[in-house]
Amino acid sequence: MSFMQALHARWNQAGTLVCVGLDPEPAKFPARFAGDPDAVFAFCRDIVDATAEFACAFKPQIAHFAALGAEGALERLIAHVHAEHPGVPVILDSKRGDIGSTAQHYATEAFDRYAADAVTANPYLGRDSVQPFLDRADRGVVVLCRTSNPGAGDLQDLVVDGRPLYQHVADKVANEWNSHGNCMLVVGATWPEQLREVRAIVGDVPFLVPGVGAQGGDAGAVVTHARTADGSGLVISSSRAILYASSGDDYAEAAAREARALRDTINRAH
Ligand SMILES: O=c1ccn([C@@H]2O[C@H](COP(=O)(O)O)[C@@H](O)[C@H]2O)c(=O)[nH]1
């Protein structure tokens, strides 16, 4: 089954648009992990197991692992998701982009080394830089469009040929780069109007939507502004608000409560 088929199956079968972000920060882990050399894997595994029933996807952010020298933990974590929660796709958030010959190695890194089902990609080097990802028709390519951060507009809003650059990205991805039907777009929850505008340009292309939870985006507004005709089309991602819902021994139960609450907020907005 391809990434896109798996995502649609998960939306339909589990009734959730929540993506659980996996951004390990050992300083925020509960005290019980102090001194544990395998803390990164163990903490993230517990979060995965506690939240899987509320998740349409998991999204590990690669820098949070690589900065700790914990790439091995990331490999084992993704293998754990595939083994214990089959049907819940993994989107590796690495925002890669480089000349084609190097991008080929980034595609190998994401899809073969880490066995991710999808990967985030930076479009600003142009189509050839994303082509090695696009060519893997069974995997997803999640292209940055209008990011959630405060400075998103510095470059993405620059007007080119009468419309903002992020709208050109949306148009190109939907109408030129998506020949295998394996593309998604990143549009931040912090920008409801832009969510609506991008949805109008791209039809049913799914969105990865970070920015709810710690960044303050309104999950209900994401749904009303950007769902597709069938009420899905969204992978709404929250990391810190779920991961660090409690710093006590109830961290896994607290994470599950947060993920369930986000799912319910989203489903009520339909
Ligand atoms: O536009 C973007 C693209 C990616 N991210 C990533 O999502 C999570 C958000 O974490 P929270 O704790 O839910 O704020 C993080 O991994 C970012 O690198 C984003 O925030 N915005």
From TrEMBL:
- Which is an annotated Pfam family here? OMPdecase
Keyword Lyase in annotation? yes
- Gene3D superfamilies in the record: Aldolase class I (3.20.20.70)
Question: What pathway is this protein a component of?
Answer: Pyrimidine metabolism; UMP biosynthesis via de novo pathway; UMP from orotate: step 2/2
Q: Which enzyme class?
A: lyase
- Positions of the catalytic residues: K95
Return the PANTHER family for the record. OROTIDINE 5'-PHOSPHATE DECARBOXYLASE
Q: What is its EC number?
A: 4.1.1.23
The family database entries (NCBIfam families) matched by this protein are listed as:
pyrF_sub2
GO MF assignments:
orotidine-5'-phosphate decarboxylase activity
The reactions it catalyses are: orotidine 5'-phosphate + H(+) = UMP + CO2
Keyword Lyase on entry: yes
Record-annotated Orotidine 5'-phosphate decarboxylase domain positions: 17-255
Q: Which family does it belong to?
A: Belongs to the OMP decarboxylase family. Type 2 subfamily.
Q: Which SMART domains match?
A: OMPdecase (SM00934)
Q: Which SUPFAM superfamilies match?
A: Ribulose-phoshate binding barrel
Identify the coding gene: pyrF
Q: Which UniProt keywords apply?
A: Decarboxylase, Lyase, Pyrimidine biosynthesis
Give the GO biological process terms: 'de novo' pyrimidine nucleobase biosynthetic process; 'de novo' UMP biosynthetic process
Write the protein's name.
Answer: Orotidine 5'-phosphate decarboxylase
